[in-house]
Amino acid sequence: MLQVKGTVFRMLPNPTIFYWDPSSFSLPTLLTEYMTSLKLLRQQSTSVKESEHIGRIIDWAEKDAKFPLLRAEGSTLDVFGQDINGATLVNGLNHLRAGIELCDEYFGKMKKPSLSLVKKVVRIHIQEIMSILHDKNEKNESDEKKDTDPVVDDDAPININDIDSASGDEKEALLIQMYFDRVRPTVMRIAGKIHSRKLNRVRTDSFASDKITSPINGKAGKENNEDEANEIWCTLVFRMLCWLQLHDFHKMDINISKSDAYASRIPVYIV
User: Fold this and answer.
1) Could you give the percent of the chain with pLDDT greater than 90?
2) How many secondary structure helices (H) and strands (E) does the chain include?
3) DSSP letter assigned to residue 183
């Protein structure tokens, strides 16, 4: 975290050449939709229900009855439209910091095999998001070639086109639904499968050298890895939403692209 604890200063320089436009999505609404989906997932999944860490995240959200959230386009808190003072703003920022620290504590207690799974979850999550964006481009190209209106399939998974065409008050719910219903299962399945293969290879080598007595059951190990990948994914998305609210970028601040003469050793003479 770059925000200094106990202060209201959270503006950061934009390290990219792209404008940061917070008006596209409401971060407070995204976090609210995330918590709603997480609670629903906890009711439906036994492994999530038994997860102590997921329980702590839900307790964090329910700790404050007002649940103060940062506006997406400003540096002030929006407590149900009420005017706030500096103390309330600091408390709201500290509440977001507590959520991030909760995730950092979870990752800090992990051992090396689990940390390896975290990297796999991040990599596969990014790959899945890029795949969804690529599907959007292909769909746009195919729609331009069609003379008739495309057939709408209610059972089809949510894609970026659905989010782009949705009304302003539906975008956040659709995005989180796409994350939970499309991205999360893919990350669980692929990350759990890859991690299980790696652990099985290690156990096989250890068994061959008589370091252990017997390898672990493959099916049970795969299910455990998928459950852990699911817990890691939920934690990373929660941390991302908290971090984006805790920090902010000025909408007109961009990193200007360096010219071809940058770092050049060509001598320059000032006459």
Assistant:
1) 32
2) 9, 4
3) I
